[in-house]
Amino acid sequence: MSGDGSQPSDTMAERSELPTWIHEILLNANRWLVTAGLVAFVFVGLLIVAELSPVSLQALMDEKEPVHTLFQALTTALITGVTLVVTINSLVLSQELGAVEDQRKRLEGALEFRRNIEESIDAPISPPEPASFAQAIVAASADRATDFRQSVSDSHDEELIERVDDFVDNLTTHADSIRDELETAQFGTYDVVKAALDYNYSWKIFRARRIKNAHADSFTDEAREAYDELLESLKLFGLAREHFKTLYFQWELINLSRAMMYVAVPALVVTISMLLFFDADTVTGTVLGIDAVVWVVVAASTVAVTPFLLLIAFVLRIATMAKRTLAIGPFILRDSSRGEEIEWE
Questions:
Q1: Which of 26-35, 112-121, 141-150, 309-318 has the lowest mean pLDDT?
Q2: What was the pLDDT predicted at 44?
Q3: For position 1, what pLDDT does the model report?
């Protein structure tokens, strides 16, 4: 077998093939700031198009009714969009509803998982907060890795000792940085999930299994026990991460539903007002060299599409997270050391 291959970076942003600024927008940036950026882009873009157009908006309005047609369509779309968001919210909440027996199974499953975690972290009770809970599992994986290194320290297989040292050094250093990230993280924000996604447990499981596969004959009973405990702690972290990710998706969808309600009502007021009360003949003059009627129509159009821009901002993060975490376990769905020669038998 060849070496362990190129070690991936310690953060998801560094492991991503996307430029850093795109990754920041997709995942790390505040969703309201992303929405504000999209609003500004639409507003400025429409103004530029209006200036570059060979026909003025005023001339078009003299021949037909583009503004009336536009806001009629936007009003319909807004009502349909709000209905869709309410439906999504209902689907999310429906997962929390059920018969007593179903709720009992959920509770028993959650308590059983906590008991497994408590055995792994050698604690009588696991932390109740997601950030502290994840911290405890990461710390346990670092402790188990150190135990694994100690269990092979007396081995006559020098290559095994060297590879385990390198593996454990990387794991413990990475674990320390993740614990620091989680120190001030609060669930409901992206920080907890971000730290969990940064801890690439799947690669660590892969490396540990390759070491075991290559040096199985050099493993003592103590080394096998330490290896099994390390692998178990990494598996439990994977389960915890998926659980937190699911909870975060539900949290974000509920936040999206509420935010859409906040912006949809003003948008509806604007679109209906433009249909009922807007008269282009009463809007005259220019502002900064642009017809005043253009400013009014562009501003109203931007307000009208704000709910959809908000939807885009939230879905971008959810979809990106889902794509980055499609696989659970030692599957790496990106380019990573594909040319390695691995002895599987």
A1: 112-121
A2: 92
A3: 39
pLDDT beyond 70 at 290: yes
Q: What's the rounded Cα separation, in Å, for the pair 154 and 132?
A: 35
* 163 touches 211 (CB < 8 A): yes
Contact in structure between 208 and 231 (CB atoms under 8 Å): yes
Average pLDDT of 198-213? 87
- Assign residue 148 a region: left if phi > 0, alpha if psi is -120 to 50, beta otherwise? alpha
Using the Cα atoms of residue 129, residue 135, residue 141 and residue 143 in order, give the sign of their dihedral.
Answer: negative
Contact 247, 169 (CB under 8 A): no
Nearest CA among 234, 228, 239 for reference residue 112: 239
Mean pLDDT taken over the chain: 80
CB atoms within 10 A of CB 236: 20
Burial class of residue 61, CB neighbours in 10 A (0-12, 13-18, 19+): middle
Distant-in-sequence, close-in-space partners of 305: CB < 8 Å, separation ≥ 6: 42, 74, 267
Asked whether the predicted pLDDT for residue 345 surpasses 50, the reply is no
Quote the pTM value.
Answer: 0.78
> What's the token pair of residue 149?
């290194």
Residue 291 main-chain phi, psi, to 5 deg: -55, 140
The residue type found at 44 is V
Name the nearest CA neighbour of 13 among 29, 32, 34. 29
Domain edges within the chain: 12-290+301-324
Q: Are 152 and 161 in contact (CB under 8 A)?
A: yes
Assigned token pair, 78: 């807004």
Length of the chain equals: 345
Lowest mean pLDDT among 57-71, 110-124, 190-204: 57-71
| Identity of residue 295 | W
Q: Give the contacts of 70 (CB within 8 A, at least 6 positions apart).
A: 301
Please give the span between the terminal C-alpha atoms of the chain, in angstroms, as a whole number: 10
